[in-house]
Amino acid sequence: MDYFLTEEQQMIKDLAKKIANEKVIPVRARLDEEEEFPWAIMKDLAQADLLGLYIPEEYGGVDFGCFETILVVEELSRACCGVSVSYAASALGAYPILLFGSEEQKKKYLPDIASGKKLGAFGLTEANAGSDASAIQTRAEKDGDFYILNGTKQWITNGGEAEIYTIIAMTNKDKGSRGATAFIVEKGTPGFSFGKKEKKLGIRCSTTRELIFENCRIPKENILGKEGMGFIVAMRTLDMTRPGIGAQGVGVAQGAFDAALDYSCQRIQFDQPISSFQIIQHMLADMAIQIEAARALVYATAKMIDGGAKNFSKESAMAKTFASDMAMEVTINAVQVMGGCGYMREYPVEKMMRDAKIIQIYEGTNQVQRNVIALQLIKENMGKK
């Protein structure tokens, strides 16, 4: 479908596609096999000014928005989700600063992220606090002009590689979610260390580690917003970034579909390409329909955000849920179309199927997203009466 991109948007998409084709695809199998963080590709993206697309010019960015960013995420995901999430997770760490940071905080941290000198990361999830963010155990106790952080964050994307972290910790456990506060924590701060690099089913070149805080002293100037606003910071940030997860789903599904379609036109069985069989044709048609439907929803949500909508939690959850469920189904079917070849590491679709699974899980499981969507629908309905 033609989404009538502006000249600048088309240039961004073409540039991201060029990097994906020339820099990512040739090394994606090796990065996956060796579980190597894609630093060289991050530098390529930085040199292309793609790491600061959503950051205003006054803080070193390019001053575009959510839509332009998801165009890049989609193209990178078509090649490798491990690379795309490494790119997108830096934005996840930066958005809290962009949305809630003071002018001093923005000037201090955003230019380095926009230039690619430093990457960002976001620390919310813990062993017993994922979907239930109010169950956070990491605590921050005030000590004069500082807060002392103690606790552990789990499964943090870009953990250990990023330099700038947004961390959600409890400053008043008695208040539940209203007792959470968001802090900016820099790598190298005494008392801040990292756990082992996790071994994952997919997105293997993306680094996932524990963040460990042991009497880590953070100056009060590093609070984002105000004390007690941590849950709001986290939820607002995730509303902004979930369309990016949807774009990952669209991208990886498109990559798998392209491979399956090409293979079906070349694979000969019973003296004809398997693409001539109606069952394969119907599988391909359904895959194409699902991809375009998801792309339309993701794009519309991103444009809604950039258009200044005040509340888009429901739409962001829809985009993430629909596109990630679609990606899982399409990648599985791509493997099926390619048969034994699809199951082999020599071909890219087995990796794409492994990568697609996490999209249904991180930044809020799809089960929780459905809760968000349903509750908002009920609230809107009640508001009409």
Can you describe this structure in just a few lines?
By secondary structure, this protein is of the alpha+beta class. The chain is built from eleven helices and ten strands. It has three domains: 113 residues, Butyryl-Coa Dehydrogenase, subunit A, domain 1 (Orthogonal Bundle); 110 residues, Butyryl-CoA Dehydrogenase, subunit A, domain 2; 152 residues, Butyryl-CoA Dehydrogenase, subunit A, domain 3.
- Given helix and strand content, the structural type is alpha+beta
Number of strands: 10
As laid out across the biggest beta sheet, the strand order is 1-4-5-8
In CATH, the architecture of the largest domain is Up-down Bundle
**Could you name the ranges where pLDDT drops below 50 across 5 or more consecutive residues?**
none
Discrete helix count: 11
CATH topology of the largest domain: Butyryl-CoA Dehydrogenase, subunit A, domain 3
Account of the protein in words:
Helix content is 54%, strand content 15%. It has eleven helices and ten strands. It has a four-stranded mixed sheet with strand order 1-4-5-8. The protein has a four-stranded antiparallel sheet with strand order 2-3-7-6, covered by helices on one side. Helix 1 runs parallel beside helix 4, helix 4 crosses helix 7 and helix 9 runs antiparallel to helix 10. The longest helix is centred in the middle third of the chain and has 37 residues. The protein is globular and about 80 Å long. It starts with 6 loop residues before the first helix and ends with a helix.
